[in-house]
Amino acid sequence: MLTHGSKRTPDSGDGCSTCATFVHDAPLSSDLHHWLRPLYVKLRTNPVFAQLAPSHQFNALVAAAEKESPSKAAQLREWNSTTQIALLSWLNDVVAQQPDPSREVERWRVRKGERELVCVAVYVPTGIDLRLMEAADFRRTQLVRDASEAEALCERWRAALMERGWGSCRNPPNSAATVIQRSRA
């Protein structure tokens, strides 16, 4: 699932033909196990999952994780029962706080003429994969280890694009940043 804000079009009425939309609805996480959250949420939708013993719940989680990363799943299998239960408990708490975790988080969009680029952070077993996309095509991608490194790289990419003529406009009327600004006023 991709979370994102409102798009801005060249004919949006403010005379801006190039624009940048910033989307920071969901802060990036440096959590090494963030990639497991959507898997755990999917498992929890099955009512039988809650009735399973923790060891069986953990085995189900590892089986789901194996589809994304066999090597990380193999590492999880080596954990002792105390660590397994701690991870399940932690996932349960985190999912209770954020019931719809996103594997992909849109950071910003820029537009120049008819072209639009989107910067997306994707949680993978080995870190955060930053992707600069144009429609379904990769323009650039880089794997980083934590959220602070991802945020810095996102900003460098955006700044470089702006130097190349990708302009910036005020936030769209219904973007999260605009709504927050209005609520503070």
What does this protein structure show overall?
With 185 residues, the chain is an alpha+beta fold. The protein has 2 domains: 2-26 and 102-184, no CATH class; 34-97, no CATH class. The chain is built from 7 helices and 6 strands, in the order ββαααααββββαα. It has helices at 37-44, 47-51, 54-68, 70-77, 81-97, 147-163, 176-184; strands at 2-3, 18-22, 104-112, 115-124, 127-134, 137-144. Helix 3 packs across helix 5 (81-97). The protein is elongated, with a radius of gyration of 19 Å. The relative contact order is 0.20. Residues 1-24 and 169-185 have low confidence and may be disordered.
- The number of distinct structural domains comes to 2
Structural class: alpha+beta
- The oligomerization state is single chain
Rg is 19 Å
The helix content, as a percent range, equals 40-55%
Low-confidence blocks of residues: 1-24, 169-185
Question: Averaged pLDDT, please?
Answer: 79
H/E element sequence: EEHHHHHEEEEHH
| Major sheet size, sense and barrel closure | 6 strands, mixed
The gross shape turns out to be elongated
The number of distinct helices, counting runs of at least 4 residues, comes to 7
- Tell me the β content: 15-25%
Distance between the termini: 32 Å
Number of strands: 6
Question: Could you list some keywords that capture this structure?
Answer:
alpha+beta; 2 domains; six-stranded mixed sheet; 7 helices; disordered N terminus
Please describe the topology of this protein:
Layout: E1 2-3, E2 18-22, H1 37-44, H2 47-51, H3 54-68, H4 70-77, H5 81-97, E3 104-112, E4 115-124, E5 127-134, E6 137-144, H6 147-163, H7 176-184
Parallel strand pairs: 1-3
Antiparallel strand pairs: 2-3, 3-4, 4-5, 5-6
Helix pairs in contact: 3-4, 3-5
